[in-house]
Amino acid sequence: MSDQRKSLSEFDALVLGSYKDGTLTDTATNEIPESIRTSIQEQLRFSGLKGKLGEIRMFYGLGGNDENIPKKIAVVSLGINKDFEQSRVPEALEITRKAVAVGIRSLRELDVKHVGVDVMFHEHGAAEGATLGLYRFDSLKSIKSHKAPPKISPIGSTSTNTDGNLCWNTGLIYAEAQNHARKLAETPANYMTPTNFANTVKSFLEDLSKVEVFIHDKEWATKHNMGSFLSVSRGSDEPLKFLEICYNGGEKGQRPLAFVGKGVTFDSGGISIKPSAKMAEMKGDMGGAAAVASAIYGIAKLRLPINVVVSVPLCENMPSGHATKPGDVVKAMNGKSIEVDNTDAEGRLILADALYYTSSTHKPHSLIDVATLTGAMVVALGEIYSGVFTNSNKLWEQLLEAGKNANDPFWRMPLDDKYNEDIKKSIVADLVNVGQKGLGGSCVAAIFLKEFVCGLTDDSDVSEKENSSERLFDVDADDDKKIRYAHIDIAGSMITYRDSGYNVKGMTGRPTRSLIEFARLIAKNPDFV
């Protein structure tokens, strides 16, 4: 929770930034009395501060009996000299994000109620760092060992945005959205069933204007011939749901941006059951669903002037006497038959129908699916990057920029038709849901999904000469009814084992902030689509 900028007397604690030489940031210098600044700078020199980013020193009672000076002050090194060029927006955002998160986490156990946050190099990054750093998941513990998070408010000017758009309030919204995704993905599967997921998302969207939420059931999916989606849900007693969300922030009839999220609320592997080690983490196999549902929350809160649709197929993948068996053949909504060679390759099966439904019904200009899809992606990229497979160079450049701004980065992977050979060797069906050689698993999964997006454009086969920065941001060569497509595999980035700064151990909620930032770039630059 946040209040707008207040005087220092309103706070019982502060987070301030310092340079390598021990001087405070310009924002802190303008707000902190000279005597207090002098004391801080002297103590920083005496303490042997090396100036490494995130290095922190705590100060108590510097103002004595002066009630206008907060009693607890966390000073965090920015790791750079004072002549840093704030025009480097992604770097300014990330340095601020990290420093503020370190400072706020050092204060949260000290029973503080209201913290003033130095906006440092970028107020958006400061709000993100504070909000993400304060996140904890302890709602299921009978004894709450942690204190309630403090309120946060900015100190220093909030009118010097480096890019004219991102500000303290946008930072709060981006971070709140990611925290929604974190909570959805972290909640155990017996609490976060398909029904509970849909109802939870509906509850945090219900007060937002221009948002419509539809929760469809098995009868609806059957009526729409979603045999691929239905096949995965058969082994579980939990009923499937198909969550459809529409945000109508743009002009009526304007083609929407579309997100599709994989929503397997628990993945046992089905009949092709997984090893028991780390199977508990498969409560997070709906990380893609959590990210896209939370992204539309952020988009609606920002009131971006665009239309957005989100589709989320929700089910469990369980073994039972009703479960789909290896070798079974199912029919997807687009009429293609699929041999299910491995029931643990279920994400692509539920996404197949969701992608076809979304592309054929809503006809978006850009369609992005997000999924914890393949173990091969974990091997390839670990937890640092999310892998992007796309048919559009321009779409890739935009996602790349969004990921850099959010420091929630993407790495491009090949979406190449040569991988089709692996999924078209079935004797009994049009497609098989896994490759025949067991190699390039992430690429094979991506090309499988591409089969279910109708109306694709393709600007990825341009020559090297054409593949310039100017070409990337030109209008795609195909007509304006075509769809740009990207598949984002977050199997590695869905979880982190790190616990520092704004990274909190557990389900990450990625790439929520990057998706919101991508939508903001689209809204800001309509020519991008």
TrEMBL record:
Domain of life: Eukaryota
Family matches, as PROSITE patterns: CYTOSOL_AP
A Gene Ontology biological process term: proteolysis
Gene3D superfamilies: Leucine Aminopeptidase, subunit E, domain 1, Zn peptidases
Residue spans crossing the bilayer: none
Pfam families per UniProt: Peptidase_M17, Peptidase_M17_N
Any one GO molecular-function label of the UniProt entry: metalloaminopeptidase activity
SUPFAM superfamilies documented for this protein: Macro domain-like, Zn-dependent exopeptidases
Keyword Mitochondrion: no
Cytosol aminopeptidase domain: residues covered: 342-349
CDD domains listed in its UniProt record: Peptidase_M17
Record InterPro entries: Leucine_aapep/pepB, Macro_dom-like, Peptidase_M17_C, Peptidase_M17_leu_NH2_pept, Peptidase_M17_N
Cellular component terms (Gene Ontology): cytoplasm
Alphabetized UniProt keyword annotations: Aminopeptidase, Hydrolase, Protease
Known catalytic reactions: Release of an N-terminal amino acid, Xaa-|-Yaa-, in which Xaa is preferably Leu, but may be other amino acids including Pro although not Arg or Lys, and Yaa may be Pro. Amino acid amides and methyl esters are also readily hydrolyzed, but rates on arylamides are exceedingly low; Release of N-terminal proline from a peptide
Classification via PANTHER family: CYTOSOL AMINOPEPTIDASE (PTHR11963:SF23), LEUCINE AMINOPEPTIDASE-RELATED (PTHR11963)
Family, per entry: Belongs to the peptidase M17 family.
Name this protein carries in UniProt: 4503_t:CDS:1
Organism: Dentiscutata erythropus
